Hints:
Elements: E1 7-11, H1 15-28, E2 40-44, H2 51-55, H3 63-75, E3 80-82, H4 92-98, H5 106-117, E4 123-127, H6 130-135, H7 137-142, E5 148-150, H8 154-169, H9 174-190, E6 195-198, E7 216-217, H10 219-231
Parallel strand pairs: 1-2, 1-3, 4-5, 4-6, 6-7
Helix pairs in contact: 1-10, 5-10, 8-9
Amino acid sequence: MAIPKMIGVLGGMGPAATADFYQKIIRATPAKVDQDHLKVLIFSNPQVPDRTAAIQGEGPDPLPILVAGAEVLIQGGADLITIPCVTAHHYYDALQRAISVPILHLVGETVTAVVGEYPGLRRLGLLATTGTLQSRLFEQYFEPRGFTILRPDPMVQDSTVMEAIYAVKHGEPLERARRLIHEAARHLQGQGAEAILAGCTEVPLILQDGDLPVPIIDPTWILAQAAVRWALGQDRPPATPSQRCYKDRG
Length: 250
């Protein structure tokens, strides 16, 4: 039996989302005793500059700190890196080129899962940071597969979605954040969304499947399952031009 590989988690963006992601890795692991669980190395660095501010040209570039964090994980023995921050995937290609181990792409894994699990869906409402919207991360992956990504109106994005996300990051009581994100989700339903993409890793902390009449799709749960499959040798990341190191790893 092959020895399971170590999952690296480049976290801290924010800390609560990182803790939630680790819980999902545990839940996704087919374990009966402690020894069945996987080796997971978490580097949580909340000092990574704000990704949305950087994308909007209003803050420092987080890439050097992301690269340094990934190197900490590699030096610690991580065989695969996951990033439980959607907006940080704006820097995915540059980060992958800078390091020697593969990074699972959260949005890429999500579109694969949605195609397989929700074959009838085509109109998806997106709750994400303004930086993610500006990067068009979800559109780049979903639109070529025939999906339409619906966004909140700008006022709703600023006054409800971002307010809710930053309330979670600030450690505020979650009641207000839940109310705001539910309001934004209903707004997207009103646009015709057949499901809601929890497109920021703070969103699943305040909006879960079953809260609304339409499915809530949680990319961090999808990423956790993909990482567990890979660590157990049941799957491997696909080779792409921006992920050449995948071809070199067994």
